[in-house]
Write a structure and sequence with these properties.
The protein is an alpha/beta fold and 328 residues long. Helix content is 42%, strand content 19%. The protein folds into 2 domains: 131 residues, Nucleotidyltransferase, domain 5 (2-Layer Sandwich), CATH 3.30.420; 162 residues, 2-Layer Sandwich (Nucleotidyltransferase, domain 5), CATH 3.30.420.40. Helix 9 links the parallel strand 9 and strand 10. The two termini are 30 Å apart. It binds adenosine-5'-triphosphate and magnesium ion.
């Protein structure tokens, strides 16, 4: 029998509700973005984000049900994100999810937002099954994850300071591109040349990353050479961080013996990173990446991750709390 999960995502600046069938098929995925609201502040303002989630959540849920052509009674599990993220923002989606679960008498399945990003790959690639290696590159995280099973993960590498998305956003601000920076750096870099030397941080005997050095270097280069071509600076930055990502992924593949590699998270929408990761594909390695619209925050990926927890009988009680720094 088909299983329908309702995903709720409100960890940052997107209010999103989705209905997903059997963890893989999107029936609806409504995303109400607050980007225009936060744009003028140059970044997400947590209090404003929470207030806007409250305003949007019922409307977005109704729209998701309508588009999927179902009623509340057809849902098998309610799956809100409970971390990591901004606590006030998380609490809106989680509280709504808990109330809904109670009202319609259907199980509550709290979802880790990071598991959601990884699950976006299950929607795009119906044949993808664990085990595989996942390079998780997002606004708040940079990790190499050994996905052992649908609900079993091992963290084998992580950033020791900034997340890669944070670095993209910071560089965008420094060169005057505004928020959200990643897509703008991506677009500008396509017109530039990677001809500026920037530091690439590697750690001996470790799969960890560090992006604070390169971030500071870009800021300094830009400051000392105000007339530098921003296109070249963006292309050089992308080139350097991608080289480090690829090198660690290669080491991780060797270490784990994985024959499948996925990427996930907002930064996996970057066109240069996608091209370079695809080049790794060979007879012994299959590469997976989510559709562009599933890379950044959306509730379909949350409903997918929720489905796999639900079928594994990982149900939560209604006292589930938001955990802003929830780990993998
Ligand atoms: N084309 C792109 N190139 C580079 N970065 C991008 C691109 N598109 C989006 N991003 C980055 O993706 C991030 C937003 O999506 P993401 O879901 O990763 O963030 P988040 O939800 O805030 O963080 P997390 O998922 O770690 O909690 C931002 O840092 C943004 O700049
Ligand atoms: Mg995210």
């Amino acid at each position: 029998m088909d299983i329908l999960t309702l995903g709720i995502e409100s960890s940052c600046d997107e209010t999103s509700v989705a209905i997903v069938k059997n963890g893989r098929e999107i029936l609806s995925n409504i995303i109400d973005t607050q980007i225009p609201i936060h744009e003028k502040y140059g970044g997400v303002v947590p209090e404003i984000a929470s207030r806007n989630h409250i305003e949007a959540i019922s409307r977005v849920t109704k729209k998701a049900l309508k588009e999927a052509n179902i009623e509340f009674g057809d849902i098998d599990a309610v799956c809100p994100t409970y971390g990591p993220g901004l606590v006030g923002a998380l609490l809106v989606g989680l509280s709504y999810g808990k109330a809904l679960s109670y009202a319609i008498n259907k199980p509550l399945v709290g979802v880790n937002h990071i598991h959601g990003h990884i699950a976006a790959n299950y929607i795009t690639h119906k044949d993808l099954k664990p085990p595989f290696l996942c390079l998780l590159i997002s606004g708040g995280n940079t990790q190499i994850v050994h996905v052992k099973d649908y609900t079993s993960f091992e963290l084998i590498g992580k950033t020791r300071d900034d997340a890669i998305g944070e670095a993209f956003d910071k560089i965008a601000r420094v060169v005057g591109l505004g928020y959200p920076g990643g897509p703008k750096v991506d677009a500008l870099a396509r017109r530039g040349l990677p001809n500026i030397e920037l530091p690439k941080t590697h750690f001996e005997n470790s799969l960890d990353f560090s992006f604070s050095g390169i971030k500071t270097a870009v800021i300094n280069v830009n400051h000392k050479n105000p007339d530098i071509k921003k296109e070249d600076l963006c292309a050089s930055f992308e080139n350097a961080v991608t080289e480090v990502l690829i090198e660690n992924v290669k080491k991780a593949l060797k270490q784990t013996g994985c024959t499948k590699l996925a990427i996930a998270g907002g930064v996996s929408a970057n066109s240069y990173i996608r091209t370079e990761v695809l080049k790794l594909e060979s007879d012994s390695l299959k590469v997976y990446m989510p559709d562009m619209k599933l890379c950044t925050d959306n509730a379909a990926m949350i409903a997918s991750a929720g489905y796999f927890k639900f079928v594994n009988k990982e149900i939560n009680e209604l006292d589930l709390n938001a955990i802003p720094n929830l780990k993998l």
